[in-house]
Amino acid sequence: MRFTRAGHTVLTDLGRLTGPSYGLSVNGALDQAAASTANVLVGNRVEAPVIETLLGGFDAVLSVDALLSVTGSPVSYLTLDGQPIPMRQPVRGRAGQRLRVGPARDGLRSYVGVRGSFAAPVLLGSCAPDALLGFGVVLRDGDVAQQLLACRDVMDPVGELPLHLDVPPLGPAGALEVAVTEGPDWDEFGSSVDLLFSQEYRVDPRSNHIGIRLGGRPPQRATGGEVLSRGVPVGAIEMPSDQGLLVLHRGRGITAGYPVLAVVTLAGQDALAQARPGSGVRFRLQSIEEARVVARQRLAQREALASRVRSLLSARWDRVAENRWTEPFPPACYSRESGVNSSGSGALDAIA
Amino acid sequence: MSAVVMTPCGEASLRVQSRTGNEERDWRVVHNLARSLRDARIPGLWSVIPTYDSILVDFDSARTNGETVEAFVALIEAGVDLEAPVPVGRRFVVPVVYGGEFGPDLAFVAQEQGLSEAGVIALHTGADLRLRCLGGPAASCMTDGPAFPRPVSRLPDPRLSVPANAVSVAGRQGVIGPVKAPSGWRLIGLTPIEVMSPGEDDVVAYAPGDTVRFRAIPADDWSRYAGRTMREMAL
User: Fold this and answer.
1) How far is B114 from chain A (nearest CA, A)?
2) Which of A229, A250, A292, A302 to mutate to probe the B interface, most B CBs <10 Å?
3) How far apart are the first and last CA of chain A?
4) Do B183 and B199 contact (CB within 8 A), yes or no?
């Protein structure tokens, strides 16, 4: 795929998960659900490299035939050779066709997955760019991201398949409600924690992949004392000043000397990755158990989608032959005792 | 009674703190425990970040959970002498150009400590400093500070950008910062060597337990070391 207008676009994945053990930030797609879904929609592993584009979108020419999908922030236009294509659906593209992804609307970051994914250099198992290290593929005008698979035959026999994959779009723009769980230093803030839940914070334009700055009244620590540097998780809410909050995101340095009041849930981190400067954010308290239920539901939805996509992609659309039974009866897969098909799941395994 | 306290840190992380009441013992506990946790190859465990008295464990919340990780920590605690000395690792001799444009805070540190600039350099280069942990940003090499008379105050207004391979001090600590980054620490010198080389397999050459010995070099020698790596400085 050759980028004729690269914008702010990188190749990334779900992050350098073992990086923090070596002092490196985890990084990776800021909206993890959107990046995963972009892969799932084209039958890739969720960890495969995808394109992440921030704000302005990009234009590119497909080098080979491709099955692609666009997820994340809605964009003001999305076309293939000038024809509008849908978001959150697998779309077939031909070599030489021009993919145009318009500027983000409502959110900030959109993702493009391509069946077979892209070639990208890897550090500790991940291609996620690390700006501090100068590592990763940051695309510039004229650059080529090598597609690893030409998908000539996918869905060809029937042309446009009537796909209705029901992937929910991003929530409506406006005030965002973000769930947090109690952080390990919650008790140090006494009753001032109420402040966190009783006002709308505003996303500061200085927010980035390291942290989302939120303007508003921060809760105050009731106890004093220096905090020794210690590991802080992605999602940690810190108060470096009395002007507002800092929610650490995936580019965060692994240690800090601030108390951790609360931790934004995994779902909340994805939402904040799409929060535009100036928009409002409200926090809501969740127990770890409640947050886990939400995370499990999101995972189950994604896995159900993956299974449907795999079925579609592996289905054979040639005409079914006439019934010409050649096996002796009963067939080997038929259990005489129970009368039920005991090994039929093998065929399903092959598809999934 | 267990001196290890565990607290959830969101759905996907756990903080493990040592509370022996002694800094050195706490450090041993968290680094011995961190090593055992990594060696155990616990399914779903992504990363282990030990610092001074605490560890942050990041895990895949779809495959495991805080309670499971807590159970593994308890198992290790029962079976491993966590207060055993942390194995002595490698010794790195790191050349530093001190003062001037290389270390703009050297004069301040000298004044604050009631020492001459040469006196600060003599203390900073005068002993092997234990590497305590890797910190943010980007695998900062956090060592004990030199035997200064008193703690070093931080910058009231942190610098927005400090060059890569900066040698700084604050409080009772020292640090080599491998990448260009903001910092509120007192910058006393720069090393010409590449502290981190991301192209290499092991990315970060140093680990907690190693020691660092600084060596003063004149600015004229900068080019003799430029392009060499931390790995080559190991003895």
Assistant:
1) 24
2) A229
3) 29
4) no
Global pTM?
0.88
Beta bridge partners of A98: A61
A181 contact residues in B (CB cutoff 8 A): 8, 10-11
Cβ atoms B59, B45 nearer than 8 A: yes
Q: At what angle do helices A288-314 and A266-273 cross, to 10 degrees?
A: 70
* Beta-carbon contacts of residue B101 (< 8 Å; ≥ 6 apart): none
How much is the CA Rg of chain B, to the nearest whole Å? 19
| Cα A217 from Cα A198, distance rounded (Å) | 10
Q: Which residues contact A231 (CB under 8 A, 6 or more apart)?
A: A20, A254, A255, B15, B49, B50, B51, B54, B55, B56
- Report the alpha-carbon distance of residue B99 to residue B108 in Å, rounded: 10
pLDDT string in tens for chain A (352-residue length): 999 999 999 999 999 999 999 999 999 999 999 999 999 999 899 999 999 999 999 999 999 999 999 999 999 999 999 999 999 988 889 999 999 999 999 899 999 999 999 999 999 999 999 998 889 999 999 999 998 887 755 554 445 555 667 777 766 556 699 999 999 999 999 999 999 999 999 999 999 999 999 999 999 988 777 778 899 999 999 987 778 999 999 999 999 888 899 999 999 999 999 999 999 999 999 999 999 999 899 999 999 999 988 887 776 554 445 555 666 665 555 554 544 444 444 333 333 3
Contact partners, residue A308, CB within 8 Å, separation at least 6: A165
The answer to whether residue A229 neighbours chain B at the CB level (below 8 Å) is yes
